[in-house]
Amino acid sequence: MLRLYITNSSIQIRENTMNNIADTSRRLAILRERRTVRAFTDRPVPQDILLELIEYARLAPSAGNRQAWRFIIVNDSQLIKKVVDAGGSETIGKSPSGILVLYEDYALTPDYHDNYQTAAACIQNLLLAAQAYDLGACWISILPPKAILRRLFKIPWHYSPIAYVAVGYPVNVKIRDIPRNNLIEDVVSENIFPMQGLGPGPSRTATYQKRLGVFIYRKLPILVRKKLKNMVKGKT
Ligand SMILES: Cc1cc2nc3c(=O)[nH]c(=O)nc-3n(C[C@H](O)[C@H](O)[C@H](O)COP(=O)(O)O)c2cc1C
After folding, report:
1. Ligand 1 centroid to residue 103 C-alpha, Å
2. pLDDT tens digit string along 16-50?
3. For domain 47-168, which architecture applies?
4. What is the pTM of this model?
5. In what order do the strands lie in the sheet with 69-74?
């Protein structure tokens, strides 16, 4: 098993480096403290702050430096309701505003979906910028079928909706600190895939069943999905 450790010689702890460490830790606080927020007050987020978040999203790296992202600020409650009614996550309806992130609909490296990777990078920037503004945010991929989003937001054929970021002022409840499932040594290795933390792994059949299950579930009408969800939650 890979052992991760910091030796005295590797980081040469001296007084001045202690200051650097404290400074680094302070700068990394935003990454440690970011957590998904799903409950918001009704207070709308001013447009200039949303634009500011998008400014930071635009600073994300982009494959081939294409910067082919587009952002739709969503603050029309009727439109938000339509997105939820058409199958979008209920969290979308809980925030007074959100940002729909789109990316030009082709990849330079189709095997690696660099268009989605780039969109993900800018979405993470949005979340961190929201955190810096003491806003709450939720990255949402439970969305209506793309065709419906295209119609609702008049999205042209050469752009694809990627995700919605619900943004708002968090209600004053303790934010769930979702623990990470694995220790670092379970998920990292040197030069070869990290097997240590995986145990025997799922069977191929189980994985294919999961994929098929998700595929079928996503094809079901929204009402049937809602019923199933309530049944799982124990409601009738
Ligand atoms: C690609 C992606 C899609 C997500 N989609 C949803 C979603 O549709 N609804 C939701 O409530 N949270 C969604 N999340 C948020 C995750 O549930 C959340 O990040 C995870 O539970 C860990 O919690 P944390 O962000 O507080 O650390 C998504 C996150 C990512 C990265």
Report:
1. 19
2. 777 788 889 999 999 999 999 999 999 999 999 99
3. 3-Layer(aba) Sandwich (3.40)
4. 0.87
5. 69-74, 97-104, 159-168, 136-140
